[in-house]
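Write out this protein's structure.
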Amino acid sequence: MDEWSRPGVYGIFCRPVQKVYVGMAKISIERRVDEHLKMLEGGRHHVPAMQALYDGFGANAFTVGIIHPVREGDHLRAIEIRAQSYYAAKGWLINNPSDQPPPYRPRRRSNRDSHPTT
């Protein structure tokens, strides 16, 4: 099974303006990206700024890539949040502001977590 057929975190990049939509697919990256492209082609994407870029630059201005394929034990939402935070910090994230999570901060381990109790 190739990585496009599996769950994972993906990016839809608009090259002329260096913007990216970061999303996650719970079943198939390919299927989820196809849904985005159909929405964009139909003029009804849920992110107005992304729709405006698509309308202005056209389909050839966009590139789709896998940011992180899921591996056993991965936490998909945490990986998506980390990727969104990375691109947001660079000013490149195009997701709706309400979709953007706070910066990802891993949970700090306490001494209790690292030492077995007796």
